[in-house]
Amino acid sequence: MSLLIQQLLNGLSTGAIYALIGLGFVLIFGVARVFNGAQGPIVIVGFYLASVVAGLSGGNFWLALLAATAIGAVFGLLLERLAIAPLASKGGGLLVPFLTTLGFGMVLEGIVRTIFSSSPQPFFVEFASESFKIGDVRLGQAQLFVTVFTILLLVALDRMIYSTSWGLSARAVAENASIAGGVGISPVALRIGIVALASALAGTTGALYGLQYAAATPTLGVVLTIKGLLVAVIAGLTSFRGAVLIGLLLGVTEAMVIAFAPAMPADGFAFVILVALLLFKPAGIFGRKLSGTAVGADDR
Amino acid sequence: MKNRFGRLASTIAVGAIVALGAGACASPGETPPSSSDDGPIYLAGISGVSGVAATYGEQTRAGEAIALAQINDAGGINGRQVQIDHEDSRFDIPTNVALFKRFAADSKYVAVLGPADGSGGIATTPFANEAGLVSIVAGGSAPWTVPFGDFVFRLPPQNKEIIAKTVKAAVDAWGIKSAAIIYASDADYAVAAKDLYEAVAADLGIEIKRVESFESTQQNFAPQLTNIAAANVDAVLMSVVAANAGPMLLQAQNLGLEDMHWVGDAGAQNASLWELSQGNAQGLITGTPFDVTSKNPEVVEFVEAFQAKHGTQPTIFNAYGYDSVRLLGQAIAAIDGEITRESVRDALAGITYEGVTGTISFPDGSGNAAREGIFVLVMDNGKFIPF
């Protein structure tokens, strides 16, 4: 039983990271109808800056977290202006903006590699290497921190989306940008804000990733993009709570596959299970039919 | 304006197709390779400095650069400077093949340093032999699955020798009776190493209680380490490079594996392991042909030069890169007459080279290097020292 609980905790802490990345996809797709190919690389930018700040500040994780979040927001603004906005009024479908954001991400990866090299970058924060025991279950402090912090962050974001007028506007745009625009909501301003928010979240995720796993390489961004994209797709693309749940489920499924079916490739097997669910819910488990109206489609 | 860009794009596309086509069609007879004038001796370099395993390509190149600087600073080879033109293979097989064909089509190149990885080397082997162009493969310890032919030379020792000696050292020192294995399932050398660990463990009477794998893009090893902790073993036998091993050892500490014995293969020999594991790599042992602490003058010269430039101990991949250039340099220097692809091959076939990774020769005239000397090192406060 303790092995099961331990693996469940392992899966939840990994799933928390997946949930944050998947959520970034859902936020941006919701208001802009863009699959953000740069979500993973922005996580990596956040990780690298956090690792530098942690190093310079003697392991001050809060400062590192703040810096990573801020750089994420800055790159989010750049991403929106350079890779999303120019296409918003041109009706490039889903593929073209995905490619431009993917290209933006590749540029970020190249910059990170040029500055830091391709070698793994360590992330050093003193309390990350401490752990404690409850019965037979071992818990790393970093693991616990990441899980709890992510849950609190997600609750705060949930409140923001579902209990504020800004969140209401965002949901209105996600529902139908044209109608939202007609009632005085500025879809473009909202899009800028949401992309910056999702990217800030990616920066935060980078710092949390560093705390939990202690190292990363520039190329990791691609892997995280794929994971986040799949979480978002399986969740149904616009479901905030769905992305959180699927992210956590993916993490736990991977851990359970490793625990009880070690011969299986955990990544692939976990996805097979989740994708199989799409056979029964083709629009995503929490998805519904989209209006198809992207932000900016009426800006021309 | 649009038309101008369109024409430019078309020109580039046509040029690329022609260049690739030329590469594909090249043969030794059509483009007689030679480097016989008084200008530089041109070598091609193929290694991945982007993609999933970029760090190893970078390390190989860093080692090559030290050797190249030494050769050129000393006046070059028989008065001629040496130039290495590098391209990034991205550790991708089609790119390796395309680059090799491109270099093969250019007669100024007398040898290729690379591909730096085994998979790329296997893929380009037929083209090296077809073009009559030497390929020196500095990395990759997995079994070679195609005939080497006359033009492919591989430097690393067989992983079998490394693993057998390292596990034996662990048994002798710690009396281990049970173990778990962990390896990267997406790396050919690591999959081969897993099989070797199992075979060696059977020979030595070690019970393998758990076999765990992961994908090398991952840095989350908690599920695998939880399984290993539950298996209650004496040691973990790992085929894991430092990039993954560092975070793995840190996470192991958090999961109650503080007193575990860790046994690695050559991929773990990287001083950055200490930093990446945040000091939790203490006591890890690894087998390697490169004893970074050796008093051998060749090794001392290399280590000092490397530390002066990079400030850290060189890794095994740095050492392989260094040896590949010095080996090739020695072979070319021994050529009496015109430096051609053929004469470079012949010189390599008969060489005995005293390198930093041991004595290298090719008793079969090409293929796997014959090697002597595998060392078992232990991580001690950030440095590898003899075990």
From TrEMBL, chain A:
It is a multi-pass membrane protein. InterPro entries: ABC_transp_permease, BCAA_transport_permease. The keyword Transmembrane applies. Its main location: membrane. The keyword RNA-binding does not apply. It is found in: Cell membrane. The chain crosses the membrane at residues 12-31, 38-56, 62-82, 94-116, 142-162, 188-209, 215-237, 244-263, 269-287. Keywords: Amino-acid transport, Cell inner membrane, Cell membrane, Membrane, Transmembrane, Transmembrane helix, Transport. Belongs to the binding-protein-dependent transport system permease family. LivHM subfamily. This is Branched-chain amino acid ABC transporter permease. The lineage of its organism: Bacteria, Bacillati, Actinomycetota, Actinomycetes, Micrococcales.
Automatic annotation (TrEMBL), chain B:
Keywords: Amino-acid transport, Signal, Transport. InterPro entries: BCAA_transport, Leu-bd, Leu_Ile_Val-bd, Peripla_BP_I. The keyword Transport applies. Residues 1-26 form the signal peptide. Residues 40-376 form the Leucine-binding protein domain. Belongs to the leucine-binding protein family. PANTHER family: LEUCINE-SPECIFIC-BINDING PROTEIN, PERIPLASMIC BINDING PROTEIN OF ABC TRANSPORTER FOR NATURAL AMINO ACIDS. This is ABC transporter substrate-binding protein. It comes from Leifsonella bigeumensis.
